[in-house]
Each structure stands twice: as C-alpha cells, then as structure tokens.
Amino acid sequence: MKIVIANTSHFKYAQLICDTIGESAKVRGTGIAKRTPEYIQKKLENGNAVIALDGDKFAGFCYIEVWGHEKFVANSGLIVHPDYRNQGLAKKIKKAVFDLSKEKFPDAKIFGITTGLAVMKINYELGYKPVTFSELTDDPEFWKGCQTCKNFDILTRTERKMCLCTGMLHDPKATSKKEKIQEPEKVNSKAFQRLKKIKEQLFLKKKQK
Ligand SMILES: CC(C)(COP(=O)(O)OP(=O)(O)OC[C@H]1O[C@@H](n2cnc3c(N)ncnc32)[C@H](O)[C@@H]1OP(=O)(O)O)[C@@H](O)C(=O)NCCC(=O)NCCS
After folding, report:
1. Could you tell me which residue ranges the N-acetyltransferase domain spans (predicted)?
2. Which residue among 1, 19, 86, 87 has the greatest number of ligand 1 atoms within 8 angstroms of its CB, and so is best to mutate?
3. 76 beta partners
4. What's the alpha-carbon Rg for the chain, to the nearest Å?
5. Are 62 and 99 in contact (CB under 8 A)?
6. Residue 179, pLDDT score
7. Helix, strand, coil proportions of the chain in percent (round to 5)?
8. pLDDT, tens digit, for every residue of 92-122?
C-alpha cells in the first residue's frame, strides 16, 4: 500500500472516489457534502490531496480545502474503500493529509466537521479539540458545501450555530505554546455516542413534526 500526494496522474480515480463517497453516505444513512469528479480533479491538480493505492487499486483518499484567505484549512472527504477498512488506513491517510496541510499552510488552523466516531478518534489523536461552530471559519463558501447534506435544514434552523456534526479544530499556535509533546488524547467514545443520540433526538424529532 502506498500513500502519496496526489497529482494529475490520478485523474482516472476521480469518478470512483465520488462514487465511493456517495455509496458510503447512503449506507451510513447520514448527511454528507456531495463532491463532483471535476472538484476532486482540481484537488489532484493543485497537490492538495492524498491518495492510497494498493498497486493500481484505489484504497483511500482525503483532500485539503482552504478557507478564509488561508486562515483555515479543512481536511475533508476522507474515504477508505470498503475492502480496506479497519486496518488503520484512515489513520495513515489523515496523518499524511494533516502533515501536508501543516507544510503548505503552516499558519492555518486545521478543522473538520464530522458525525463519525472514527474521524473523531483520529482527529483527537492528531491534537484536534472539539469546538463550537463559532470557532470555525465563517467563510460562506465552506458552509455552502453543507447544502447537499440532508441535515442542512438543521444548520439553517440553528443559524449555523450547531448541527449533527461536531466541529474539531487544530490550532498550530495553541500547540506550539506547549513545549513538550503530550501523549495523544483519546476520544471518549461513549460520551460522543450519547451526545450524538441527544442531538439526533433533538434535531430530527423537530424535523419530523
Ligand atoms: C470512516 C472511515 C474513513 C474509517 O476508515 P478505516 O480505515 O476503517 O479507519 P481506521 O482503521 O484507521 O480506524 C481508525 C479508528 O476508528 C475506529 N473506527 C473505524 N471505523 C469505525 C466505525 N465505523 N465506527 C466507530 N469507530 C470506527 C477504529 O477502531 C480506530 O480506532 P482506534 O484508534 O481506537 O483503534 C471509513 O469507514 C469510511 O471511509 N467510511 C465512509 C466515509 C466516512 O464516513 N467518512 C468520514 C466522513 S466525516
């Protein structure tokens, strides 16, 4: 398995990446921002993505988005092909895209929003902290990406203050203030699952009324 910074030679995987993201969202039954192959190809072209390949076979992907005039970057679209899950591949891809983000945008805060426990776990270990949406970018283009998510009405209803996703942020300044490297923190899975259930009950019940 090789995990590399993607480029134009990986254009042929763009459609498969979109299909895998779309199908996984259907299976999970959760909301997801839709991506087009053209959008993915832009990421490949700009060297703002990481791809995992098993020989020629697509195994996983994640890309960087830049927001608020490079004040923020997001590591988005994380996907591991079903054949390669539960082997630690997402962790490796996320670490690679995190390192690439720090190299290309050293002053940017790195953030993500997610409903997934796996992503929460990985982000925690990379030093992200859970934050309210007010700590994230206010770049309207970022939030526009949520329009294709089935929970978008919740985000609108709460005036972008909260949704089913949890916001997570890595602030390079906060990290460099600490002189010693700390043990990676572990997410409290039970607490996260409970919080997610509470949010779903609150928001989705209202929606059905
Ligand atoms: C989520 C996803 C990327 C995980 O990929 P993966 O390669 O199987 O993940 P890893 O093997 O690196 O696992 C990382 C951690 O998450 C945990 N994990 C993996 N899948 C999980 C799941 N479905 N639910 C809860 N925890 C999970 C692993 O046990 C591991 O935890 P540990 O550090 O305590 O051992 C993959 O299942 C996927 O592509 N899903 C569909 C798309 C998606 O949900 N993307 C995220 C959008 S926010």
Report:
1. 1-149
2. 86
3. 63
4. 17
5. no
6. 46
7. 50, 20, 30
8. 999 999 999 999 999 999 999 998 899 999 9
Ligand 1 center from residue 179 Cα (angstroms): 31
Place of tokens 């998510």: 149
Give percent of the chain with pLDDT exceeding 90. 71
The neighbouring-strand residues paired with 51 are 4, 61
- Token pair in block for residue 199: 């949010």
Query: Three-state SS for 49?
Result: strand
Q: Work out which ligand 1 atom sits closest to the CA atom of 21.
A: 42
| pLDDT greater than 70 at residue 30 | no
Residue minimizing CA distance to atom 32 of ligand 1: 121
Two tokens, residue 93: 């891809």
Does the pLDDT value for residue 209 go beyond 50? Answer: yes
Q: Mean pLDDT across the chain, nearest whole number?
A: 90
Q: What per-residue confidence (pLDDT) applies to 191?
A: 85
Which of helix, strand or coil describes residue 61? strand
Other residues' Cβ atoms within 10 Å of the Cβ of residue 123? 26
Contact 87 CB / ligand 1 (< 6 Å)? yes
Among 91, 62, 93, CA closest to 78: 62
Return d(Cα 151, Cα 117) in angstroms, integer: 18
What are the structural domains, with CATH classification, of the chain? 2-208 (3.40.630.30)
